[in-house]
Write a structure and sequence with these properties.
9 helices, about 15% strand, single chain, Aspartate Aminotransferase, domain 1, 4-stranded mixed sheet, Aspartate Aminotransferase, domain 2, alpha+beta
Length: about 290
Amino acid sequence: MPDFTFIATASMVAAVGATPVFADVNPVTFTLDPEEVERRITPRTRALLPVHLYGQPANISGLMTLARRHKLRMIWDAAQAHGAQFSGRDVGSFPDAACYSFYPTKNMTTGEGGMITTSSSSLAVELRLLRSHGEVSRYRHVRLGFNLRTTDIASAIGLVQLAKLPKAIRARQRNAKILAEGLRGIPGVQLPELVPGTSHAFTLFTICVDAMQAGISRDELQQALGKRGVQSAVHYPLPLHRQPIFRGYGSDRDFPVSVRLAKSVLSLPVHPGVKEEDLRYIVQCVREILKA
């Protein structure tokens, strides 16, 4: 799994008694690098857990080739990738399972919770048992399970959100295009990459700030934007191997891209509620601050 992602990806691996093995990410897409993954596969490896970070699809074909070669399961973290596509297919349609989040900051929400999609009918049966105390019929329980059922109210919200999702993604992609066109060419600013054959869902529009080239650090840019009324966020300030809970799982030299991203990423407003004049103002502020 990638060293650069939200901690939930790794903590759920540890929670079931497995050991998360971190690998570095691609410097352009920020998603799991197949070459880095292959170097870390051992006879103990059971699954790959890529993340479609910020709404950018991971290298699905490359990673699935690895999985087939080494007979591994594929578990996709699609928490930020509602509606993202790879080779014309929704990222949730690939084997073996994809995990979504419905947290309020995502492209669609039910207030909290999430969803799993799977191509396996047997796994679907197991997941349905797990979500409701291992119950096959009323008060008949065949295995250990949990109370992970969504509520009717949350489901009703989710269905409405799902119907609005295509329009919301088009708005995000339009906003991302305006930001990218306005910020293109600024020294020291790396823009999100649009990979041929994929459709970026733009849950986040995340740039990278090279302090040496830009003449200002990521944190300084964030503070300056805040003073101008532009909210931004850092996703994520620590790579997983630096988290206290995962100390000893690697060092900075093992994950140079992940370490660089943690120091340089900054997410700018891209959600459907941002107006075009707001986006132009964001571009203006970034250029003024960076004197570009």
